[in-house]
Design brief:
heterodimer; A: about 450 residues; alpha+beta; Amidase signature (AS) enzymes; 2 domains; eleven-stranded mixed beta sheet; 14 helices; 17 strands; globular; B: about 70 residues; mainly alpha; 2 helices; about 0% strand; AtzG-like (chain B)
Chain lengths: ~450, ~70
């Protein structure tokens, strides 16, 4: 095979096409990926482990299958990374903690890892996260902080920060994350990449270490919208129905809670999207503050209860910030948890009512750009508040309803990345991909390139 | 306020120190809380109480069921 031309490292489908059509071997792609991680991840710390020998061996198998005329699948030879809460057979799943580091290796792949492998993709690395996914910063006491590839003095966001940063840096074209309160959407927004939180319950969570089972969803990050779509379809177990015509979609802008606190730059970018779509009606969800509160409480109570047996035995081995939140959650009265779940049912009905007159809602993903690591706060109602606890201001309320939400990186904001949430009724991911595609064609959304000196 | 016979029984004062409440509540679920954890747990408990006040402050009909088996 001749020396391969450089494939766009952000484009999973282009990589797969090159491998399937013989322009590059899967082994050469995998070797280059591992080398890039070893050299370039030192500045951002997105990767916690490289599955080097097994990934190369798997790439060799892909090459042998292709040589034999076999079809390895639509993601043939594509390297992908997993937030370190997905089981990869033979590897220990740490969930970002030393508490689980002595656990036995996983005996099976997580369901979504198995599906991606069946489509030809190859897991090559585990990725950093907030301990047990409890945070929006990916500031991990055990494995270090993940830095934003666009400015290494800033947060990548979390809790799936390693997954977003690895894609943004061009180290991996495809990664997996989880989203309980915004842990895919927040880092996707701050790192300028595509991310999808599918409809709650639509993508299997088996083999993904839980956090708050009432809210947990697993989903992909990708460097291209098409890569995100194919990864989602593989993870969901089949292709979506055809995408709807964008002209037929009723799009509205979420106001109220979702119109307050955002930066002027972000508001301007969303104005541009709204103008492109012909000027959007602004609609409001009721009781958003209470929805966020309910999501916060359910997460705290379920997370605290999940960890209670380990907290009884060795609480001091946890990251102190995670531990103290989990303990407080475990102590919540039953009446509060039950009331939060009752409110969730009420809120669900309000959300469904809104979708009777709209197909897709748009809202900011974060209040603004990534906060500095040495001053990890954001401004809410004129006050500086902890970024780790509050970056989900716009994502947490929507988590409560279990909706599918695509985080689209806004283009032309002139500085650090900012993300837009595209929100649909349950099961209507196709509407999200249709609208995102139209906005990308119009040059309003798309992966935010790194400063030139940092591109591969 | 009239006195009831039970009123002489020990009661948790309204202004019980947060740390004492945490230690007592944790004991109920078999959890000992190391002193080094208490400041962080106090802070997080205060945050959760503010959120709890929001949720409890909203009247729901008795027929509104908990979403334990949630379907979006």
């Amino acid at each position: 095979m001749t020396a391969p031309a450089m494939t766009d490292p952000f484009d999973a489908l282009a990589i797969a096409a090159d491998i399937r059509e013989g322009r590059r071997s899967a082994v050469s792609v995998m070797s280059a990926t591992i080398a890039a991680i070893e050299v370039r991840d030192t500045s951002i710390n997105s990767v916690t482990r490289i599955f080097g020998p097994r990934a190369v061996a798997e790439a060799e198998r892909i090459d042998r299958r292709l040589a034999a005329g076999d079809d390895p699948g639509p993601l043939a030879g594509v390297p992908f990374g997993v937030k370190d809460l997905f089981d990869v057979a033979g590897e220990v799943t740490t969930a970002g903690s030393v508490v689980l580091r002595e656990s036995p290796p996983a005996t099976h792949d997580a369901a979504v890892v198995a599906r991606l492998r069946a489509a030809g993709a190859i897991p090559v690395a585990s990725l950093n996260m907030d301990e047990f996914a409890y945070g929006f910063a990916t500031d991990n006491a055990h494995y270090g902080i993940t830095r934003n590839p666009h400015d290494t003095a800033r947060l990548a966001g979390g809790s799936s920060g390693g997954s977003a940063a690895a894609v943004a840096a061009g180290l991996l074209p495809l990664t997996l994350g989880s989203d309980t309160n915004g842990s895919i959407r927040v880092p996707a927004s701050l790192c300028g990449v595509w991310g999808l939180k599918p409809t709650f319950g639509s993508v299997p969570r088996e083999g993904a270490y839980p956090f708050a089972a009432s809210l947990d969803v697993v989903g992909p990050f990708a460097g291209t919208l098409d890569g995100l779509r194919v990864a989602y379809e593989v993870m969901a177990g089949g292709p979506m129905a055809g995408l709807p015509a964008v002209a037929d979609l009723r799009v509205a802008r979420l106001g109220g809670w979702f119109g307050a606190n955002m930066s002027d730059t972000l508001a301007g970018a969303i104005d541009a999207v709204a103008a492109h779509l012909g000027g959007l009606e602004t609609v409001e969800l009721p009781e958003v503050a209470r929805a966020r509160a309910a999501s916060f409480l359910i997460t705290a109570a379920e997370g605290g209860t999940l960890h209670l047996p380990r907290l009884r035995r060795h609480a001091l081995r946890y990251d102190p910030a995670t531990r103290d939140r989990l303990i407080a959650g475990a102590l919540l009265p039953a009446a509060t948890l039950v009331q939060a779940h009752r409110f969730r049912n009420w809120f669900r009905a309000q959300v469904h009512a809104l979708f009777r007159s709209a197909d897709v809602l748009i809202a900011p993903a974060t209040v603004g750009e990534a906060p500095p690591i040495d001053q990890p706060t954001i401004m809410v109602d004129g006050q500086p508040v902890s970024a780790r606890a509050n970056l989900g201001l716009y994502t947490q309320p929507l988590s409560l309803a279990g909706l599918p939400i695509l985080s689209a990186p806004l283009v032309g904001t002139g500085g650090l990345p900012l993300g837009l949430q595209l929100i649909a009724a349950p099961g209507r991911e196709a509407a999200l991909f249709a609208l995102a595609g139209a906005l990308a064609q119009a040059g309003l959304v798309g992966r935010v390139p790194l400063p030139a000196s940092k591109e591969r | 306020m009239s006195e009831h016979p039970e009123s002489s029984a020990p009661r948790v004062p309204d202004a019980a120190p947060d740390e004492a409440v945490i230690v007592a509540t944790a004991r109920d679920i078999g959890l000992g809380v190391d002193a080094s954890c208490l400041p962080g747990v106090v802070a997080n408990r205060a945050l959760l109480r503010r959120y709890a006040d929001l949720v409890h402050g909203f009247a729901l009909p008795d027929t509104c069921e908990p979403a334990f088996e949630y379907r979006p």
